[in-house]
Specification:
With 85 residues, the protein is of the alpha+beta class. It contains two helices and four strands, in the order H-E-E-H-E-E.
């Protein structure tokens, strides 16, 4: 368990997240959707006829979070083609 504590030493308390299955430090992956910026996108840029300027909508992929946490432990969470599960 001392090894796990060393992994978290470089993080702020609020940024520490551990996998509930294996205890490894979780990693943050930015949302990969085009035009998603911090979890929202400008709907006016997508459809300027039906949306007013400055109309922001939550991203359908990350649901307004800007990305997602995942566990990089392949032994605990097998991945397909390098994508986090």
């Amino acid at each position: 368990m001392a090894e796990q504590a060393q992994i978290f030493d470089h993080l702020d308390y609020d940024d520490r997240r551990a996998c509930s299955r294996c205890g490894w430090e979780m990693e943050w992956a930015e949302c990969h959707m085009i035009d998603c910026e911090d979890g929202v996108y400008d709907a006016y840029e997508e459809d300027c006829i039906n949306n007013d300027p400055g109309t922001f909508v939550n991203c359908s992929e990350c649901h307004g979070k800007g990305g997602h946490w995942y566990c990089p432990n392949d032994k605990c969470h097998p991945t397909q083609e390098g994508q986090p599960k």
